[in-house]
Write a structure and sequence with these properties.
Blueprint lengths: L1 H21 L17 E7 L1 H10 L1 H5 L3 E7 L5 H7 L5 E6 H11 L3 E9 L3 E3 L14 E5 L2 H13 L4 E2 L12 E3 L5 E5 L13 E4 L1 H6 L4 H4 L2 E2 L9 E6 L6 H10 L2 H11 L4 E2 L2
Parallel strand pairs: 1-2, 1-3, 6-9, 6-10
Antiparallel strand pairs: 3-12, 4-12, 4-13, 5-10, 5-11, 7-8
């Protein structure tokens, strides 16, 4: 009788262990009994337009590759880099290389460009004049206060002969580099996000394309002066940290952003206001 009790207990123990093994889950919480792929969470910071919209368009393609993309939107140009540096984001998508270079230098970040995605032509807009010929002596001109985008505005003014710079190829030119200002333009520097609100105040306002689009402005149609797309050094880039730039999920994200589907999405949705850089 004792022998049969031992056998019965042994069989019960085997059954319990087998049940435990069948219920074992993968680290992602998914059932791994059939070799199901592990889902990777990827958190990417982006400006709402067009960056977040482009990222949203590739979510299904990444999901099919086991990557769950979470897009976190920002309305400024400071927090996306700070949070990426702090490890709160895995990547970001909102800036161009000159801006990133300044951020790394001034803030001691360790952020790297992964790949260029699109170009947003930077331009000057106005509600008060219809052409640059109408710009009066002492006119108020608003430009972004960060070195790279402020420099873009000054280079455009110089190209149109409205000011002269020490070096009209220096993309980080500042007001201190102005050597001639024949119209005595009153150039004010403000945060880039504030530019659309200056349209009611200033005579000429320089606005980054993402903020222009949010304000229902089309750079290709509404700007009084605009950058050339050919040879433009301001392609918007996917950015990660030095420690994760070679991660498989980041590589797949970069590949998805260079797909023909994304190229078609950009061309059809933005009608020349945004152009692919690949």
């Amino acid at each position: 009788m004792k022998k049969w009790s031992i056998v019965l207990l042994s069989l019960m123990l085997i059954a319990v262990l087998a049940a435990c093994g069948n219920n074992k889950k993968s680290d992602s919480g998914a059932d791994n009994s059939a070799g199901a792929p592990r889902t990777v969470e990827l958190k990417v910071g982006a400006s709402p337009t067009p960056h977040a919209e482009i990222l949203e368009s590739i979510k299904p393609a990444l999901e099919a590759q086991g990557i769950r993309l979470q897009v976190v939107t920002f309305n400024d140009y400071v927090q996306p880099n700070q949070q990426l540096e702090d490890g709160k984001l895995d990547a970001n998508f909102f800036q161009h290389q000159p801006y990133l270079d300044v951020q790394n230098k001034e803030r001691g970040f360790h952020l790297v460009a992964v790949t260029p995605v699109h170009v947003e032509p930077f331009g000057g807009y106005s509600k008060k004049i219809k052409s640059l010929d109408e710009l009066k002596d002492g006119a108020k001109v608003a430009i972004p206060n960060d070195p790279s985008n402020g420099g873009r505005a000054l280079l455009l003014l110089a190209k149109k002969g409205l000011i002269t710079l020490k070096d009209d190829t220096n993309i980080t030119s500042t007001k201190k580099d102005i050597t001639a200002n024949p119209k005595n333009l009153d150039i004010i520097e403000l945060d880039a996000a504030m530019m659309p609100r200056q349209l009611d105040e200033a005579d000429l306002v320089f606005i980054n394309a993402n903020y222009a689009l949010e304000a229902n402005l089309n750079p290709a149609k509404d700007a009084l002066l605009i950058e050339d797309l050919q040879g433009n050094p301001y392609a918007n880039i996917l950015v990660s940290r030095e420690d994760n730039k070679d991660a498989d999920a980041i590589k797949k994200l970069a590949e998805a952003l260079h797909s023909e589907e994304v190229k078609k999405f950009i061309k059809e949705r933005y009608q020349g206001a945004v152009e692919p850089a690949f």
